[in-house]
Each structure stands twice: as structure tokens, then as C-alpha cells.
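Incident log, structure service

09:12 report received: a user says their structure output differs between two submissions of the same chain.
09:20 pulled the input from the user's history:
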Amino acid sequence: MTEERPAPSSTTTPEATTTPEATIAAWRDAAERGDADAAGHLFAAGIEVISPLTEQFRFHGPEQVTAMLAAAFETISDIRFHTQVGADRTWALFFHARAGRQFVEEAQLLRLDASSHIRELTLFGRPLPALTAVMSEIGPRLLRGRRRPALARLVGALTGPVAALTRVGDRRIVPLADPRRPHRTGPAVRG
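09:34 re-ran on a clean worker, output below:
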């Protein structure tokens, strides 16, 4: 079910965001504008983000999550939400965007607290080349923001080839497995 959202208000503040619907509308508006600070005002003090890129750690607290979003909004552009489902304290949102030249589709599971602030955000993304492109950009951005330039270079050097391999594989190899692709028969292979 796709729901129409209320028109965003330029005066949305944490105090004005007291209903789940208002929080979700403000979240969508902030994301589509790439405004991490505006999104940060919607977070509960105990916000936790579960990333699609790693199970090794999570982002905790408004400061970490806002920094992560700022890096994400530098990496992911043209966010346009297309589907929203949910009620009360649990919502699922879906958007299309770009990560460089890569098409991205993301699903977000948002859980709100009793005061309608976002307490948990779980992210899911596709396709794989887009996820690896985001990984190769967002990690180094976050590390540079934390003044860890050597580690940022290392992460970039290690994740860049993964992004390149998945991009090339998606363009050149994956189409060979398309079920609509004509199958060529050749000589029988003997073992």
C-alpha cells in the first residue's frame, strides 16, 4: 500500500514532530533534501542504525547516526521515496536514488519510540553493485570525518576493487545467466 504523505513543513522541529505521521513526513523530507542535521532532530537519544554493509558494528546515538547520514547523503543522491507502509511505531519506506552512476533502491525499517522519535533504523539495499559503490565511498568519508586519514585510504583501497568487480560482473557476467538469453549448445564435455 502506498500512502500519500503530508506536505513537508519547513518549520518541522523536534517539538513539532509529535505524531508518527509527522516524524515519517519530516524524515522523508530530510532524506530527499540530503539534510542530515534535519534528520538528526528526529532521533531518539538511543537511536541505533543497523547497516546493510556490515554486521561488525552498529551506529549508536544521534551524533554517530547524523555523521553517518551526512556521509551517506554525500554518497547517495536523488533520493525519491516511492512507497510507505506502516502505522503507529513501525514503518517501512522505500526509495530510488543514485550512488554515482549506480541505480540504488533502499528499504528502511523505522521503529519509533513513545514520543514518535526514531529509535531504530534498519537499512536494506540493492543491487549489489550499488551497495559496494556505497561501501567504497561511505567508509572512507566517515573515517576522514573522524580524522583517521590513513585508515580512510586503506578502507578505500580495499573496498574500491570490490566495487569495481561487482560493477563489471553485474554488467558483463550476470547477463549471461539471464533465463531469457538463448542457450547455445556445444559439443558434449566428457569427464
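09:41 both user submissions now match this output. Likely a transient worker issue. Closing.
09:42 reviewer note: The longest helix spans residues 149-173. Residues 1-14 have pLDDT under 50 and may be disordered.
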